[in-house]
């Protein structure tokens, strides 16, 4: 019986058979496919959100070596967890995993929930991750809809609605659920994602080599290039930011970002956004005064680092600086903690990618004492 949200034009069960046959041959050997440990599946699926497979592999292996199970993750300091995640971006994923691991230890006797509903109650676990754990680790007949699966079904069903609309999402989930061969949800879901990753790619899909091309309405209607219908892209925003490497007695001043918001809990060099009409030097002096209550002397420019995160394109102007009055004690208005650290200590702390690039430069060129 088709599920109630399944679309009318659903492909036949032959779709699932052809897909599974293809997957048997084509599946890539990925580290998270060699396990059915729900914790490892959970970690891999969280890492794979918004991140490419080849980037995730070394992080996944390091993560499991450092935190091999839920109790080791729950018992680790958040700083260590963020350090392990450094460079992967979207740090709330790591914070939520840490929080969820603690909840599992405190409230669930250290055992991961075995139901879709139970998983959804944990921080950071949404329909996608719960579907992945239920189907891949527990082999329950639960659908899994990620960006790859959305694209595949938008083409198979030749969907005219934008895939991000609730009605379209419901239809895709219904289709995915209806086509699961009983008892094979784990394989089927992974096969769908693999098809989206390897064959039904965003650009230039390999329709000639596609195992389910006979079922593809977009191919039949010649609309493949316009499916899926996507929402208009959000405009990127350019930001000019200043940061200061403030040195005193050979130590550098760093601050830890507040526990909420973007890149929460990561360390950084103090600074902030330029106001309109301000020079990078003026912005730096103002930011140190406002956020740390210290007067600085802005020195030579070290570098300008260009980087992008989420929808921001940032130019980070970095300067040497020093306190006008070395005995001043920085205040905590926009940070959780401040520290004076030796350059060699910077390696053991988690920084955003742009700051990490700066640290590599400082390590190479040296820090004035
Ligand atoms: S036939 Fe082409 S568009 Fe259709 S599912 Fe296969 S690869 Fe995607």
UniProtKB/TrEMBL annotation:
Its cofactor is [4Fe-4S] cluster. CDD domains: ENDO3c, NUDIX_MutT_NudA_like. InterPro entries: A/G_AdeGlyc_MutY, DNA_glycosylase, Endonuclease-III-like_CS2, HhH-GPD_domain, HhH_base_excis_C, HhH_motif, MIG/MutY, MutY_C. SMART domains: ENDO3c. Its EC number is 3.2.2.31. The keyword Transmembrane does not apply. Adenine glycosylase active on G-A mispairs. MutY also corrects error-prone DNA synthesis past GO lesions which are due to the oxidatively damaged form of guanine: 7,8-dihydro-8-oxoguanine (8-oxo-dGTP). This is Adenine DNA glycosylase. It comes from Desulfatibacillum alkenivorans DSM 16219. The lineage of its organism: Bacteria, Pseudomonadati, Thermodesulfobacteriota, Desulfobacteria, Desulfobacterales.
């Amino acid at each position: 019986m088709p599920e109630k949200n399944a679309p009318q034009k659903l492909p036949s069960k032959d779709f699932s058979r052809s897909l599974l046959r293809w997957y048997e041959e084509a599946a890539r050997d990925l580290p998270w496919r060699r396990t059915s440990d729900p914790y490892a599946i959970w970690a891999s699926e969280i890492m794979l959100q918004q991140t490419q497979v080849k980037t995730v592999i070394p992080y996944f292996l390091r993560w499991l070596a450092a935190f091999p199970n839920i109790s080791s993750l729950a018992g680790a300091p958040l700083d260590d967890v963020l350090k392990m995640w450094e460079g992967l971006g979207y740090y709330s994923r790591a914070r939520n995993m840490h929080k969820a691991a603690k909840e599992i230890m405190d409230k669930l006797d250290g055992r991961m929930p075995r139901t879709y509903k139970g998983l959804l109650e944990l921080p950071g676990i949404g329909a996608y991750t719960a579907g992945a754990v239920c189907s891949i680790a527990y082999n329950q007949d639960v659908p899994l809809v990620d960006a790859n699966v959305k694209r595949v079904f938008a083409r198979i069903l030749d969907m005219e609605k934008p895939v991000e609309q609730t009605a379209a999402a419901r239809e895709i989930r219904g289709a995915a659920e209806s086509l699961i061969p009983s008892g094979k949800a784990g394989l089927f879901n992974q096969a769908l994602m693999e098809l989206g990753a390897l064959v039904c790619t965003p650009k230039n899909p390999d329709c000639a080599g596609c195992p389910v091309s006979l079922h593809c309405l977009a191919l039949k209607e010649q609309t493949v290039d316009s499916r899926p219908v996507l929402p208009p892209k959000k405009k990127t925003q350019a930001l000019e930011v200043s940061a200061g490497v403030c040195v005193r007695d050979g130590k550098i001043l760093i601050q830890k970002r507040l526990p909420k918001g973007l890149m929460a809990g990561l360390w950084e060099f103090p600074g902030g956004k330029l106001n309109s009409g301000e020079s990078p030097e003026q912005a730096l002096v103002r930011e140190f005064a406002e956020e740390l209550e210290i007067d600085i002397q802005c020195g030579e420019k070290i570098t300008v680092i260009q980087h992008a995160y989420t929808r921001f394109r940032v130019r980070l102007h970095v300067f040497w600086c020093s306190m006008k009055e070395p005995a001043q004690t920085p205040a905590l208005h926009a940070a959780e903690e401040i520290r004076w650290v030796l350059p060699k200590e910077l390696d053991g702390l988690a920084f955003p990618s742009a700051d990490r690039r700066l640290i590599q430069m400082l390590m190479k060129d040296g820090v004035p004492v």
